[in-house]
Specification:
By secondary structure, the protein is an alpha+beta fold. The protein has one domain (24-130). The chain is built from one helix and eight strands. The longest helix has 20 residues, at 2-21.
Length: 131
């Protein structure tokens, strides 16, 4: 019985160390506006954690119809799934905001993607990257 317990403990410790060493940070950026979130979960989710930057970052898109661009990320197999949302103010919503998915990417560590779907909200593109 002690041998089995020790083996289970060793396997659990190995799994925890492996999970900690594969942390991936995902960043959304445009110019000096930068926000990051860790891809720690393994399935889609609502709520936090997320990261966001203003749609009119550096006042470069004064006619933007979105308030923010937000990302959520989770691990998917050996990659990271990143979903980009446009966030608009909505007085009728319980949270006073509404988010709409505008892009999704399956990314490898060190990859960078230019998100041009922000143009649908009269905003300049943002960059999403992983490290």
């Amino acid at each position: 019985m002690k041998l089995v317990s020790a083996t289970v403990f060793a396997l659990a410790a190995t799994f925890i160390v492996a999970a900690q060493s594969t942390r991936v940070d995902v960043t959304i950026a445009r110019g000096r506006c930068v926000a990051s979130v860790g891809a720690e979960r393994t399935e889609p989710y609502a709520g936090g954690p997320w990261a966001a930057i203003p749609a009119s970052c550096l006042n470069d898109s004064p006619e933007a119809t979105a308030r923010d661009f937000r990302i959520r990320a989770w691990k998917e197999a050996e990659s990271t799934r990143v979903v980009v949302f446009a966030v608009v103010t909505d007085a009728t919503a319980a949270t006073k905001e509404r988010e709409t998915q505008i892009a999704t990417f399956l990314m490898s560590s060190g990859q960078s993607v230019n998100v041009t779907q922000t143009a649908e909200y009269n905003a300049a593109p943002v960059t999403v990257s992983t490290k």
